[in-house]
Design a protein that fits this description.
The complex is a heterodimer of chains A (612) and B (196). Chain A is mostly beta strands and 612 residues long. Among the domains of chain A are: 1-54, no CATH class; 123-174 and 201-272 and 291-470, no CATH class; 570-603. Helices cover 14% and strands 41% of the residues of chain A. In chain A, strand 40 and strand 41 form a beta hairpin. In chain B, 50% of the residues are buried. The chains are: A mainly beta (612), B mainly beta (196). At the A-B interface, strand 6, strand 7, strand 8, strand 9 and strand 10 of A face strand 2, strand 5, strand 6, helix 2 and strand 7 of B.
Chain lengths: 612, 196
């Protein structure tokens, strides 16, 4: 037993020694060392035995290890023997690969398969809902049950709305993108040309957006305008008076201007939408500033080219375009009544007029320098026309037009569903005027009523304009003698005329037009101002002329709100007559009373003298 | 009363560009100095899948209410009186509402994806004769972009302008009755821009 244990210990000891002595060698061998039989030394990749120095030295820089059994010298792939089969199929330009120095009869294959699966689904649903309820009403005026009464007159009522709706549309390019817009209200009669020159060097409006041009694009765009405008002047009544004046109701005026743009590109350097409301008569032309175009060209050296416009005009387009205009215009003048008076004047009702201008453009492509959409509403008589559009009250035209054709196209698998619905109710109602049951009464006259709507619906159109694009609404309450966008003999244009204008606060700094009116001075007043031809109706009335002049420009040269002066009692002839009559009656009564008193005293004295 | 209002809402998806750039993969492989009749193969398979979903629900509501009233004027029961005049009432509103959605990152990602995003490098050299040397790059990039843009702009404007009544009644001597003007002016610009 003891021998057996001793034998086991010896075996373990020998085994341990064998491991300790054999493992390093195995490890070296495993790490790539090799035996130098000539020198009877072990070398590795880092250290090599030098028989000269009889020391281990650092191994030289590694060189390509010779093939263990190279049967042929290595060659570059480009120099492969004819038997070599090299195939390359690469679609990935970013991959770099090389198969070089392969032996003959090698089969070298490089295969790049790059698969890009792109699935783009874009659903755009854009909706604009505009709801506007505007109600302008003037109160009633009554002069009743007076011994002596004056006039009854109600004010004017007006409601104006200008709405621009744009969906997926581009107006302008680069820094000049967007639409500048302005509204000008001019009161009174005007004799002279109106020159509009948009100074829009810093148009702030909205940025450009390209329409989707990828596959499977569904654009569902809709614009809904619910516009309700009502302008109603109050009733005027003169009744039950012994002596009274006239009854006159004011004018009622309602105008709706709408521009709807869907999937439309207007590549223009400058664009503006302007509304000019003239509350009176105009004798003159409405022109664009002559320096306007050079100014724009100077500030916009680059001419827009078609290549700069990213518009999905290709194939396989499905357009579903719907334009619905539900427009209800109502203009009603009140009833003028003169009845049951002993003595009275006449009864006259005002004019009632509705005017609807609709311009629908779908799928138009226009290449031109400039383009203008003009809408003209003249309540009275218009002697003139739009340049290049004789006989029309709404027109789209341009200068330098090189092409104007209709194109219905789009990008592949592009579904455009665009709808515009305009529900517009515009009502203008002037009040009644009644002169009744008076011993002596004046006239009964009702105001004018006008309801207008100007609508431009533009879908899927493209305007390539190197110059400018403009939409101009011209609304004139009275008569107009003159042309639009052409200088004629109408009016008197005075170079360097002062700038005056509008009733409202000065238009926004962006898009502010230069409105200059040429005037024919005919009255000088105590303000020392140029009293303009706008006061024609009161040309012989310095008071009215002065008030109107101060309404357009005060002594400081700033714009002010127009005034509609109410006659001062001192200026009212009727009041003066009453006042003078009163004093006269009072004087006569006093004299009669004094004379009577004197006679009574004398009579009393005589009676006392005759008494016994 | 005059009101000028400007409302703008902008949604921009830019982070997608950064996200997609991280998908670029690279494979580097080298086989060298093999014996004759060797079978040398480098196979790289990269599969990239990306799903971009931009859902933009943008709603802008602009509500404007304006009311201008002038009071009544009456001259009643006087022996001697002047006129009765009421003032003018006017409202002016200028509203500019703009809603913009831009998924710019999606477009940029699409461009880079289509051109291939992998940078693969393989090298087989110094092989013996009769070797079979093959390099396979299989890159599959799958990009799914879904942009759903719901943009709605609601603009509501209510304007009421009313001048008061004027009455001259029951006077021995009275003046005129005149009511003021009433006017409403509204100018609105609503713009929706969507870029994908």
């Amino acid at each position: 037993m003891q021998q057996f244990k001793r034998a086991v210990r010896s075996a373990i000891l020998y085994a341990t020694m064998l491991v300790l002595t054999g493992a390093p060698s195995a490890a070296v061998y495993a790490s790539g060392d090799y035996y130098d039989a000539e020198n009877d030394k072990w070398n590795n990749s880092e250290w090599v035995y030098n028989p000269t120095t009889k020391q281990y030295e650092a191994a030289p820089t590694p060189t390509p290890t010779p093939s263990p059994t190279p049967e042929q010298p290595a060659e570059d792939a480009t120099q492969n023997p004819p038997a070599t089969d090299n195939a390359t199929d690469s679609t990935d330009s970013s991959a770099a690969d090389s198969t070089t120095q392969t032996g003959p009869a090698s089969n070298n294959t490089t295969d790049h398969d790059t698969t890009v699966n792109s699935d783009t689904n874009i659903d755009n649903k854009s909706t604009i809902d505009n709801t506007l309820d505007s109600n302008a009403t003037t109160g009633n005026a009554g002069v009743t049950q007076n011994t002596y009464g004056g006039d009854a007159k109600t004010g004017d009522a007006s409601a104006d709305a200008t709405i621009v709706s744009s969906v997926h549309s581009t107006v302008g390019t680069g820094e000049t993108s967007g639409i500048a817009h302005f509204t000008i209200d001019l009161y009174g009669d005007i004799n002279g040309d109106i020159v509009v020159g948009p100074a829009m060097a810093n148009a702030e409006v909205d940025k450009t957006t390209n329409i989707n041009s990828n596959t499977n694009v569904n654009n569902d765009s809709s614009i809904t305008n619910n516009i309700n405008l009502t302008a109603q002047s109050g009733n005027a009544e003169v009744s039950g008076n012994t002596v009274a004046g006239s009854a006159q109701s004011g004018d009622a005026r309602a105008v709706a201007n709408l521009i709807n743009l869907i999937n439309t590109v207007i590549a223009a350097n400058k664009s503006f939408v302007g509304t000019i409301n003239i509350h009176g008569n105009l004798n003159g032309d409405i022109l664009l500033s002559p320096e306007f175009i050079p100014q724009l060209l100077a500030s916009n050296g680059n001419n827009t080219t078609e290549s700069n416009v990213n518009m999905p005009l290709a194939t396989n387009i499905n357009d579903d375009q719907t334009i619905v205009n539900n427009v209800d215009l109502q203009a009603t003048t009140g009833t003028a009544t003169v009845k049951d008076n002993t003595s009275a004047g006449s009864a006259q009702s005002g004019t009632a007029q509705t005017n609807l201008q609709i311009l629908n453009l779908t799928g138009h492509e226009v290449d031109a320098e400039n383009s203008v959409l003009v809408f003209v509403n003249v309540k009275g008589k218009w002697v003139g026309m739009i340049l290049d559009a004789p006989g029309s009250t709404a027109a789209a035209f341009g200068s330098g037009v090189t092409r104007n054709d209709v194109t219905l196209a789009g990008t592949s698998n592009l579904n455009n569903k665009a709808s515009i619905t305009n529900n517009i109710n515009v009502a203008a109602i002037s009040g009644d005027a009644t002169v009744s049951s008076n011993t002596s009464g004046g006239d009964a006259k009702t105001g004018n009523a006008s309801a207008s709507a100007n609508i431009a619906n533009i879908i899927g159109s493209k305007f390539n304009l190197s110059g400018w694009f403009a939409v101009l609404f011209i609304n004139i309450d009275g008569d107009w003698t003159g042309w639009a966008l052409k200088d004629t003999d109408a009016g008197n244009k005075i170079t360097g005329a002062v700038q005056i204008a509008s009733s409202e606060t000065p238009p926004p700094p962006v898009g502010t037009p230069n409105v200059r009116l040429g005037y024919v001075p005919h009255v000088s007043d105590e303000y020392g101002q140029l009293v303009s031809g706008a006061a024609q109706s009161g040309a012989n009335d310095p008071y009215a002329a002065a008030v109107l002049a101060s309404a357009t420009k005060n002594t400081n040269g700033t714009l002010t709100t127009p005034l509609i002066p109410a006659p001062s009692p001192r200026e009212d002839p009727f009041s003066v007559i009453l006042m003078a009559g009163g004093f006269g009656v009072a004087g006569i009564s006093g004299i009669a009373w004094a004379a009577r008193r004197l006679l009574e005293l004398r009579a009393a004295n005589r009676v006392s003298e005759l008494a016994p | 009363m005059k009101i000028r209002k400007t409302i703008g809402a902008v949604v921009t998806s830019l982070g997608l560009v950064v996200g997609l750039s991280g998908f670029a993969g690279a494979t580097t492989a080298t086989i060298g100095t093999t014996g004759p009749s060797s079978n040398n193969q480098i196979t790289s398979t990269q599969t990239h899948s990306a799903t971009l979903t931009n859902t933009n629900n943008l709603g802008v509501t602009s509500a404007n209410g304006q009311a201008a009233f002038t009071g009544p004027a009456a001259t009643v029961g006087n022996t001697t009186a002047g006129g009765a005049s009421t003032g003018s009432a006017s409202n002016a509103n200028s509203t500019n509402v703009a809603a913009s959605v831009s998924n710019a990152g999606s477009s940029a990602a699409l461009a880079g994806w289509g051109a291939g995003t992998s940078n693969n490098t393989a090298s087989i050299n110094t092989t013996g004769g009769g070797s079979n040397n093959q390099v396979f790059f299989n890159d599959t990039n799958t990009l799914t972009v879904t942009n759903t843009n719901n943009v709605g702009v609601t603009s509501v404007n209510n304007q009421v302008a009313a001048s008061g009544p004027a009455l001259v009644a029951g006077n021995t001597t009275g003046g005129s009755a005149t009511t003021g003007n009433a006017s409403n002016t509204n100018s609105s610009t609503v713009t929706i821009n969507v870029a994908n």
